[in-house]
Each structure stands twice: as C-alpha cells, then as structure tokens.
Specification:
heterodimer; A: 97 residues; mainly alpha; Histone, subunit A; two-stranded antiparallel sheet; flat; B: alpha/beta; 38% helix; globular
Chain lengths: 97, 490
C-alpha cells in the first residue's frame, strides 16, 4: 500500500483537520509505514470468520429520548463551556449564505 | 506517622477508628506532592483546598458517628480524562483548554459514596493515546525510579503518583495497556477489569469497544477494595454489564492449591529483555510453590493483535474525537472565515501530533474503498484473537505473562518512531481485544533497578481469581513494598 500526499490531503479533509505542509509530509511517510505493518493481517484467511464489533453479547440497549439534566448538568452549565454563545444558543459562523 | 508503609486499607481503618484524621493524612500526601511533584510531574492539577475541605467533612461525619463509606477519608488521584463536576478536565490536550466538567463520571459518583478524597488530576498521553506520557500537551511525567525514564502510559501520571507514594490510590483507564504498562514500569499494581465491569460514563472516550477504567494501588488488598468501590451496573453506559459483583476482599485469602496457570509460548520470545524473563520465571516458581500447576499454552494469533489494534482503536477514536469541533466546548480557532474552516483549524491547532496521526489513520481505514480491507478485516481477526483465549481457558484458570518486553525506556528514546512506541504495548493489547480482565503487579527489579511487571490474565468477570493470585504472591514476596528513592534530596 502506497500512501501519497494526495491521499493525506483527502483524509485530512474528511477528518476536518488543517495540517501544515510539514505535517502532511510526515504523516504520508508514517501512515505508509504503519499500514505496511498492518498488511500482515492479509496472511490470514478470514473468509468464514464472523467480525467482532465488541466482546459482549448485548445489543440494542434503549432508553427514553429525553434530556437528563440530573446526570449531565443544567443548560446553563453546558453553555458556560462554549467558546461563543448568544443567549441560550451556541454561536457559529453563518451556515447558509 | 509513617504514611509510606501504610496501605490504603490500613489508612481507612485508622481514620475510621479515629487513630488518624483524614485531614492529617490528606495534608501529609499534599506535602509529599508539594515536595516531589515539581520533579515527577505526575499531576496536571492538585486540588489542595478542595481536598482538605473534603477531608474535614469526612472527619466531621466520623466524629458524629455518621455512616461513612469503606474508603472514607482516603486520598486518591484521578486520571485527567474522567469528569469531576466543577473541575477542569483536559485529557492533557490543548483542545480542551478551559473545559469544566458539568457532571460527575459514574466512577467519581461511586468514589464520593465510598468516601475518598480527590487529590488531583493526573497527567496522561493526550486523549490516552500513547505509552509514555510524552504525547501529553502539558508535561512529560518522570518515572519515580529514574527521572531519565518514562513512567509508561497512557496513565503515567496515575502510576507515578502511586509509585512515589504521592497518593495511596489512583484511577486510570486502559484501552491497549494504559493501566498495566505504566503499572509495570513504575512498580505498582494496575488492573484493567473485564470490559463492561466498570461504567465508562463520564470517561472521555478514546476507543469505545476497548476502553475500561481500573484501579492503581501498591498491593492486592487495596486493589480489591478500590475495584469493589467502582464495579457494577450503570444504566448510563449501554456496555455496562448487569452481572453480580462478588466480594473481592473475601476472595483474597483462599490458597492457590490446584490453580492451573497457562504460560503462552508466544509471550516468552526472542527480544524479551533477559531481566524481565528471569523475574517472571522466578515469580512463576513462587506461584508453583504455593500449589499452582503450570502448563505451556498457545495463543497463535498473538502476533496479529498489534495490527488489529492499530486499525480498530484509531478508527473508533476518529469517530469519538469528531465531537471536538470548537463549537460547544474547548478551544476555538481565532478568525476562521467560515464554519468548515472553523472546524478544520480548531482541530488542526488543538490536537497534538499523535492524536492527529491516529485520527488520520482511523479516518483512512474507515474511508470509502478501504473499509473492507482494513476495518472489517481487523474485526474478523479480533474474533480469532478472542477465540485463542476461549480455547486456552478451557484448560487453565489464569494466564501469566510479562507485562512489557523491557523495563522503562528513556525519555525521548522512541518519540520519532511511532511503530517502535506501539510495540511496547505488545503484551497488553490482546487482553483489550478479547475484553478480558488483566492485572500487572511488580515481580522484580532490573539490573539498573527499574521495576518489572508480571501480567495476570483471567476469564471474563473472574477478577477475584486474579486478585487472589496477586494477594497470595504478595504474601510470599516483597517487590510491591519496594519504594523508589526519588532522585531529589529529602
């Protein structure tokens, strides 16, 4: 598997990461080295092996869809961590032109 | 009072019987932190005032003969990736600058009920990604046994704090060895319980199918008491398991007659440090002397675990860390032109090099065209790794291995080569992939007087057998009582 700087650009965009040119060069080489180590998995035939997502035999744990202020803190507590706010809202750049 | 020689359970009983006050004990540990932590750098923050206030509260309750928990008045250090309401939580990352927890993690709530006093937040590799604390954006913690060496990671601050007796107890989290590896390198006990045994609610997520919170202590009895205080079902963590929690302390005293130990041949390999090999072999002889039987076993897919881990953990991390976007909390890049730029720059500037490397790796592995080749393939090999353990546990009760291939390495030695750094976790990763409980305990010192750890791996939800082995071994040996001299004058 050969990783190019174009791949790194593409992945950085998907991951929403601004990288410097120096970082891009470093990650190109390092990802290539890590991924070539990971190629090792292809030594194994896994045709009939089921995947393990996690080890527990539990699935579909439901709860009621409601805000949980007792455990998570009040609206005001949560907003206090915002870099920018306006009233009871998180403030961001204009999304729709 | 000689605090250094007291265990947490002894401290607890002396506080309960009013032979000591929590305030005296807390003040004594704070004083040790003040004296030694400027060099060791285990803590991101010390809660000096809050801790003393908490201690006085406990003392008042005890003097009024009110009901108090089993760890009432005992100080504890908390890895800085667990939420303590009202306190900062940084994950040793710049992206969480100024973030204050709005609620208590489940384990913190349980510890409040048990009566512990919170001493402070301990350093880690940024977002728990690393094996040395060198990936912390805030500081590199030093190994109390040799200040030139790393303490291990990612829970390096917690391990170092207990090793240097800056705290009698600590909590860490373990995704691929992040409790056991630093415990081994610092010469203390560290335990990753079965996946699902301890709630992850309020633990900042790294890789959700692998993360687990666990205790650090100097001895097995304290480990049992601390695990007891945090284990159990929590409806706020959908992977928490509603399985009965046994009395861990009661299980310690049974002997090891007839215990079947498996030694996986894949862990006693070339490249294993000679001192480590010798120390673990000696420890196994001690266990045999206590009545255990030993047989060689095989875990044939061991050599693939690291590759599986370095697909699954970064993939899960890339999804989990998408929440850090500069909008709801944490650091926001200044002067971004539009929303996309705000995301990209907040993240690009806020995350450190290892975190970005893993986000890139995980995003790549999950991206269109590569998902089957990497993520799906790794999930299938994970099944094979788990199957190896299922087979082994048909004939043995516990598996014994070295925790790490070498003692602590020097600060700076592996920073430029990520793959070499990853290889230091080679013996601890399979346990997370299989979801098993695993404990590291001290079993020797190397020629250059660095601690060596032995790893005990058990069947799912069989923490008590592991604790019993650790306790019985600790009764016959004194490695866990060795305290580093600390490289600064008293």
């Amino acid at each position: 598997m050969s990783i190019t700087k174009k791949d790194v650009d593409h992945v950085a965009r998907l991951a929403r990461l601004t990288l410097t040119n120096e970082e891009k060069e470093r990650y190109t080489a390092q990802l290539e080295s890590i991924l070539s180590y990971i190629e090792k998995l292809n030594e194994l035939d896994t045709t009939n092996v089921p995947p393990t997502a996690h080890v527990l035999p539990i699935s579909n744990v439901w709860r009621e869809d409601r805000a949980d202020q007792k455990h998570l803190g009040s609206t005001e507590d949560l907003l206090a961590n915002a870099p920018e706010r306006e009233g009871p809202f998180f403030k961001v750049k204009k999304v729709i032109e | 009072m000689d605090l250094l020689s007291l265990t947490a359970s002894e401290i607890a009983s002396k506080i309960r019987s009013r032979e000591l006050t929590s305030e005296e004990v807390t003040a004594a540990f704070l004083e040790r932190i003040r004296r030694f932590d400027p060099e060791i750098k285990a803590f991101n923050e010390v809660f000096s005032d809050h801790a003393l206030a908490q201690a006085k509260e406990i003392d008042t309750k005890i003097s009024k003969k009110e009901q108090v928990g089993p760890l009432a008045g005992v100080p504890i250090a908390i890895k800085d990736n667990m939420l303590i309401r009202g306190e900062l939580c940084t994950c040793s990352s710049n992206i969480l600058t100024g973030f204050r927890a709005t609620y208590d993690a489940y384990v913190i709530r349980r510890l409040r009920a048990a009566g512990t006093v919170f001493l402070g937040r301990t350093n880690l590799d940024e977002f728990a990604m690393g094996s040395s604390t060198e990936n912390s954006a805030l500081r590199t913690t030093r190994n109390p046994w040799d200040f030139q060496c790393i303490p291990g990671g990612s829970s390096g601050g917690s391990a170092a704090s207990v090793a240097a007796r800056l705290a009698p107890l600590a909590l860490g989290s373990d995704t691929g060895g992040s409790i056991r590896q630093p415990a081994a390198l610092c010469g203390v006990n560290g335990f990753k319980p079965t996946y699902g045994r301890v709630s992850r609610f309020g633990l900042v997520a790294f890789a959700s199918s692998l993360d687990q919170i666990g205790p650090f202590a100097t001895n097995a009895r304290d480990m049992a008491i601390l695990l007891q205080a945090i284990a159990g079902y929590d409806e706020n963590d959908s992977t928490s398991v509603n399985h009965p929690v046994p009395d861990y302390s009661a299980a310690l005293d049974e002997d090891l007659q007839g215990l079947r130990i498996g030694l996986p041949k894949e862990y006693f390999i070339e490249g294993l440090d000679a001192d480590v090999k010798k120390a673990v072999q000696e420890a196994i002889k001690v266990l045999q002397g206590l009545g255990a039987t030993v047989q060689e076993i095989s875990l044939p897919h061991t050599e693939y675990s690291l590759a599986v881990y370095y697909i699954l953990a970064p993939s899960e991390a890339s999804a989990n860390l998408s929440r850090f976007d500069g909008v709801r909390y944490g650091r926001r890049a200044a002067d971004a032109g539009n929303l996309l730029e705000l995301y990209e720059r907040s993240r690009g500037e806020g995350f450190g090099p290892e975190v970005k490397r893993r986000i890139m790796l995980g995003t790549y592995a999950l991206s269109a065209g590569y998902y089957e080749a990497y993520y799906a393939k790794a999930q299938k090999v994970r099944t094979l790794v788990k199957h190896d353990f299922d087979e082994a546990f048909k004939t043995v009760d516990i598996i014994v291995t070295p925790t790490t291939p070498t003692p602590a390495f020097r600060i700076g030695e592996k920073v430029s080569d990520p793959l070499q750094m990853y290889l230091s976790d080679i013996f601890t990763i399979s346990c997370n992939l299989a979801g098993l409980p695993g404990l590291s305990l001290p079993c020797g010192l190397s020629g250059s007087r660095l601690p060596i750890g032995m790893q005990l791996l058990g069947k799912p939800f069989n923490e008590e057998t592991i604790l019993r082995v650790a306790h019985q071994y600790g009764k016959k040996t004194s490695w866990h009582k060795q305290i580093p001299k600390l490289g600064v004058p008293a």
